[in-house]
From TrEMBL:
Domain Glycosyl transferase family, first and last residues per copy: 210-357
Transmembrane parts of this sequence: none
UniProt key word Glycosyltransferase: yes
Region (Disordered): 387-412
MF term (GO), any: glycosyltransferase activity
Keyword 4Fe-4S: no
Highest taxon of the lineage: Bacteria
Enzyme Commission (EC) number: 2.4.-.-
Species per Swiss-Prot/TrEMBL record: Ancylobacter mangrovi
Keyword annotations: Glycosyltransferase, Transferase
Protein name, UniProt field: Glycosyltransferase
Amino acid sequence: MRAEPLASDIGGFGGSLALVHDWCPSFRGGERVLAELRKVFGAGDIFTLFQFLEPEVLETHFGGAKFHTSAINDWPGMRRFYRHLFPLCPFLIEQFDVTGFDAVISSSAAFARGVITRPDQPHLCYVHSPMRYAWDEQFSYAEQMRMGRLGRLLFSVVLHHMRMWDTRTAHAPDVMVANSNFVRARIRRIYGRDAQVVFPPVEVAPEAFSAEKDDYYVTASFLAPYKRTDLVIRAFNAMPSRRLLVVGEGQQSRALRSIAGPNITFTGFLPRADYLRTVARAQALVFAGCEDFGIALAEAQALGTPLIAFARGGARDIVAPPGAGHEPTGLLFERQEEATLVDAIAAFEADRSRFSADACRERAGRFSTERFHRGIRRAFDRAIDIHRPADRRRRDRSPAQALPAATTSERT
């Protein structure tokens, strides 16, 4: 299999590129990164297990891209049940033949990096997260699925084999890139590998920015248990004088609506322009989950909106809290407890004037598309360099220079 040559000439490389992504059920954070990865190089076929994107999304963000999907993508019911087939996904990803391409970039939160490549084929992996449900969140996922004793046993056996596959394939890419310092630490702990940190690109139209705020708070995410929207709702139930808008839908929609007080409004998913306007005019975006990065959080900063977020995960890369040597752009709270979140909101309101919209927008500049492109180009160049003969490798760059650790300024 051969594909069109890359429009970009990275490190003297002008060959064809395969982009491998876990799955594309909708256009969310991971798919936005996938689209931007393709823009970095100007070309590339996309291999993904399941693809259910709307035609207008395909045209707008992936115009001209050739998609290759798994053999079961078009089976009846796949849109609804594809997630339940995760035990088959390692096998399915290994059925993609990318050996005819000159290089591979995988965009992976689970399976994509397990694609089989040639020994001489450069492979860069952009890691959104190690496989959550196979590692640190195994027990919480089992609890959410409400399985009986036998079901839990079978689930544990499946995950045991998934971990073995995951560990083996973690050493397949030549270079790993993490989307946050949090994910970088997880990669080191789980796989024993280091990774360069390249933050996902976050861009909003300048006209969407707003320094003027209305009298409400907002939380925005897919409504799944690990997002902890339930905690945000309980906190605002305890503060009936504060308005909260909940943006998004998901498996918890009905349950969350049932516990929400009259001061809480559910908007469902909003059109992009309405979503940006809603977040831009909020007093703050409140988030109580642990995100690997959190594109919605970074977008809020770009829109001039402060954050009140749980102090774990990508939020630590995004928020500049008071006393961090920067003009503050939000608050971090240390415990996922209702009282702790209520106290954080009270502290925010007591010192509201410190959190300026301009400071938030400036903070978001570190997540620019330009920086993303530059970081990916550098990492890809390193992957290419690994496969050059020793006498042809770049002499102006050592491995340590090619894969720099995140600087202090990037972490704060």
